[in-house]
Amino acid sequence: MQIPKNGRTILVGEDELEVRAYLDMALKCLGYEVELAQDGNEVLACLQSSGSKISAILLDITMPNRSGIEILGEIHQIASDLPVIIVSAASSPLDVVTAMKNGATDFLSKPVTLDDLHNTITRALEMTARDNVVEVRNTETVTGSFVGKNPRMREIHALIGQIGWSEAPVLIQGETGSGKEVLARELHAQSPRANKLFVKLNCAALPSELVESELFGYERGAFTGAFQKKAGMFEVADGGTILLDEIGDMDVRLQAKLLQVLQDQEFQRIGGKTTIKVDVRVMAATHCDLEKAIAVRTFREDLYYRLNVINVHLPALRERPEDIVPLAEFILNKHTPQNTPIVPVTGRLKEAMMAYRWPGNVRELENVVRRLLVLRDADLVARELMAKASRKLLLPTASTDSPGVPQETEAAPILKQVIRAKHRAETEAILAALQSTRWNRKQAATLLEIDYKALLYKMKKLGVEDQSSRFSAAAGSNGQDAMSASSGSF
Questions:
Q1: Helix, strand, coil shares of the chain as percentages rounded to 5?
Q2: What's the N-to-C CA distance of the chain in angstroms?
Q3: What is the pLDDT of residues 11-58, one digit of tens each?
Q4: What is the third-level CATH fold of 137-315?
Q5: Would you kindly state where each structural domain of the chain is located, as residue ranges?
Q6: Largest interatomic CA distance in the chain
Q7: What is the β-pairing status of strands 135-137 and 241-245?
Q8: Which residues of the chain register pLDDT less than 70?
Q9: CB-side exposure of 383: number of CA atoms within 13 Å?
Q10: Region for residue 270 given its phi and psi (left: phi exceeds 0; alpha: psi -120 to 50; beta: otherwise)
């Protein structure tokens, strides 16, 4: 099958033959044209001869004669706006800081995986000269991302317009991959700032030494390598929205400066004396428990209360099993190319999706669906999911919360381990369906696509206690919580 070309050319500067050959093959698989150079002089010569043909450069930090950092400065003299991604086998925070301060767009550690290569180059090509490590995209309405029947997700979706127009800071909490950025983009799209920039910075993706310069910018000469003035995120997003992703990983020292911007809407660049006033709405997202972080003094309490005007907690995918299959079908339709038949989601694949725990949440589900699109074999993907679920269940540290299923031991015969894994998977699938239907067994049987009496038999066999009465008793208090959600935190 011929790989479609995307019309972009990547220049690879790498002295190791094996790595150079791998990058050449990987980039061509991603649809790029490739130019190869084995040292810094060849990189510069190729850049001068090719002119505007080069879209980005992958540059090894350690090469013969001159290092990648030295070559980096000369590259920017030839093409100041060209994205340059530094590659290193022994990356350290100091290497990253040095590379970024000398104008690198991003940083890759060897061995380079295909996914990392694809994501890094895609991100680099989207960056502008003024914003060379901050992700800035034209905002698109992402209505449809909240697919499914889960009451909690429907409640959040119903309040998106109200929250979007409020202009108040929003703190979005949830596990990695649960859709925090998707929600932030939706809130921006539903706000008066929808026609302005939406800017995102991942506080965990950059060393703390760089986060301040990316947020607030710097003046020329503020530190070694600051050859020209650079605007920070707050200036870039003036009039728009900033998403501070993984805010829980931000250095405590920077939290104080961020608090000042939230309070006064003004700041100073690094090395500058002029006060800059901006109008920016701040959203923050994290998978951390910030209240615990406050207790151990890794997160400022005053910043927490400043950000926590409106709090949204996104449930994990395993907590809303009724949405798994509809989400998979939505993603499948989204990624299927035009004029290409849609791969059917078979009953066996649906069963495997329901049995799997999805530790990576919606992001992991999307990866599985994209794998299905490539392989076009639903049964194979189903077998892989069931195998992953069984492996996790067979671990010695596996949870023993599921009733009626004893924990496996390494000494148990393999057949018994398989039977126990099957029982555990059935138990977890039944419990997930019951919880999602508020312990309505008939609805759970419909969701699981089995007969009602068969569900009762399996519950008895697996020792799943009927908790419908206890669940009903708690429903009243949950209803009160839902009523209070619209007035602030929800």
A1: 50, 15, 35
A2: 49
A3: 998 888 888 888 988 888 888 889 998 888 888 888 887 666 888 899
A4: Rossmann fold (3.40.50)
A5: 9-127, 137-315, 318-472
A6: 76
A7: unpaired
A8: 1-6, 50-52, 90-98, 101, 126-148, 225-226, 392-418, 467-490
A9: 4
A10: beta
* DSSP 8-state class, residue 358: -
Read off the DSSP letter of residue 354.
H
Asked if residue 250 lies in contact with residue 200, where contact means CB atoms within 8 angstroms, the answer is no
* Per-residue pLDDT reduced to its tens digit, 157-197: 888 888 988 889 999 999 988 989 999 999 998 899 988 88
Q: Which two tokens stand for residue 420?
A: 């126990």
Helix intervals (H) in 51-195: 68-78, 93-101, 114-126, 151-164, 180-189
Token digits for 77? 């003299």
Alpha-carbon span 363 to 254, nearest angstrom: 29
CA pair distance 58, 118, nearest whole angstrom: 12
Integer CA distances (angstroms), 418 to 204, 236, 421, 423, in order: 39, 56, 5, 9
How far is Cα 248 from Cα 171, in angstroms, rounded to an integer? 11
CA distance 276 to 226: 19
Q: How far apart are CA 362 and CA 325, in angstroms?
A: 11
Architecture of the 9-127 domain: 3-Layer(aba) Sandwich (3.40)
Helix (H, G, I), strand (E, B) or coil at 224: coil
Determine the residue type at 109.
Answer: S
CB atoms within 10 A of CB 87: 25
Domains 9-127 and 137-315 share a fold: yes
